[in-house]
Specification:
heterodimer; A: alpha+beta; four-stranded antiparallel beta sheet; 6 helices; B: alpha/beta; Glutaredoxin; 2 domains; 5 helices; 7 strands; about 45% helix; elongated
């Protein structure tokens, strides 16, 4: 008997947190969707409407079937006027409040994500060692960009394939950050290889080189693809943003 | 006869025990096998990639977020791959307007063979080249043909490591479920 009692107590103890969790979950659901629980009161079932709204005269057994039918058709309208409007408006207000809460939460998440992103960048790429390489394109009539390979100090650091959408975005004036990394202060060499289709849809591959001095602050470099109208050829250059 | 009954019972018990042990071992082996073949990316976000397409533009997976994407990994020496690509082409033609994208990813070392295969296999969707096998490694391709179904949210939802014409209705059913989401 003692054993059984102990076992029951153990089960009760084991079930207690579950019960607590279930009660908490129920409370949360009730708090989150009060309208769902308030709905029956606000909009009673069709069968219940005549009982609530019927006048003593209408429920008389002596009333004719025609008048009963008329009473039935009039019942919803009467019900609408008879049922107090406060629970429905309360439910609508609650739903609006819930929507606002959700929107607020979404905004908080977006803000938090942005802060984390900034923090991550600051930690991983401190300003004194940071090097960023961007790419931009002007017109692009003589060159359809396909791939850019980037080497810094003879080491390949990026190889990016551009899709037509990305090329279109670049042609519209967009700037793409191709590489973000860290470099110690001193002299460095950047080599960029551009592959794609040149004039007359021929395969085209060109390179551009820049030797640059990395100081204490962040370094920003830009790969520029321009059209040289006089030579009917694309032109590739690397610009050092001081 | 009366003496033999306990012996029969003992034999029955022993046989039942052995059957139970065997069944347990079989179940364990099945579980272990299924655990070994469980696809690691199932339920996770599909890794992004960009690849050259045969005779076309580059394709980046993340640009197709919002569409149901089917990745079919194939090789030019794989006979079933040809059947599967043909079946996928039918699905692509039917459901492309509903938001279905299909990409065939070639994993051959020999690019010439892949290009010849692509030339003879007329399909409406892009055939991509992965000579470095970086995408195949990322997607843990261990059999050809292998098909990965990605939902509109970019998560890997189904994987098939083989193809047979009898699987086609199953593929279609799974595709329809993803397209209706």
């Amino acid at each position: 008997m003692l054993h059984v009692a102990c076992h029951r107590r153990f089960l009760a103890l084991k079930a207690a947190p579950l019960r607590l969790a279930a009660v908490t979950l129920g409370a949360l659901l009730l708090a989150a969707h009060p309208s769902a629980f308030a709905q029956p009161a606000a909009a009673p079932p069709a069968g219940a409407v005549p009982a609530v709204t019927a006048t003593p005269g209408a429920t008389q057994p002596a009333a004719a079937p025609a008048s009963a039918a008329a009473a039935k058709s009039a019942a919803p309208a009467a019900a609408a006027s008879a049922v107090p409007a406060t629970p429905a408006s309360d439910a609508a207000t609650d739903t609006r409040g819930l929507d606002q809460d959700i929107q607020g939460l979404k905004k908080d998440v977006v803000d938090l994500n942005r802060d984390l992103f900034v923090l991550e960048e600051e930690l991983l790429f401190p300003a004194n060692t940071q090097v960023a390489v961007f790419i931009s394109m002007d017109v692009g009539e003589f060159f359809a960009l396909d791939t850019v390979t980037l080497k810094i100090d003879q080491k390949e650091v990026a190889n990016y394939l551009y899709t037509p959408r990305e090329v279109e975005a670049l042609a519209k004036g967009g700037v793409h950050r191709l590489y973000l990394g860290n470099l110690r202060a001193g002299q460095h060499e950047l080599v960029a290889f551009f592959s794609g289709q040149g004039p007359h849809e021929r395969d085209y591959r060109r390179g551009a080189t820049l030797k640059f001095q990395k100081g204490i602050g962040a370094k920003y470099l830009e790969l520029k693809i321009n059209d040289r109208q006089r030579r009917q050829q694309p032109e590739f250059e690397i610009k050092d943003w001081e | 006869m009366g003496r033999q009954q306990p012996n029969d019972r003992a034999a029955l018990r022993s046989r039942t025990a052995w059957t139970a042990v065997l069944a347990g071992a079989l179940a364990m082996a099945t579980l272990m096998t299924s655990a070994a073949t469980a696809y690691v990316l199932l339920g996770h976000q599909a890794p992004d990639f960009a690849l050259h397409a045969v005779g076309g533009n580059n394709v980046r997976l993340s640009e197709h977020r919002g569409d149901v994407v089917v990745l079919s990994f194939w090789g030019s020496r794989c006979g079933q791959c040809r059947m599967q690509l043909a079946a996928l082409d039918n699905s692509f033609k039917t459901y492309h307007s509903a938001g279905l994208q299909v990409f065939g990813v070639n994993v051959d070392d020999d690019q010439a063979g892949a290009l010849e295969f692509a030339r003879t296999q007329k399909v409406g969707f892009p055939l991509l080249l992965d000579p470095q096998k970086s995408v195949a490694r990322t997607y843990v391709v261990d059999n050809l043909p292998m098909t990965v179904l990605i939902d509109r949210g970019g998560a890997v939802r189904q994987v098939h490591r083989d193809f047979s014409s009898k699987f086609e209705p199953l593929y279609l059913q799974q595709l329809r479920v993803l397209l209706n989401e």
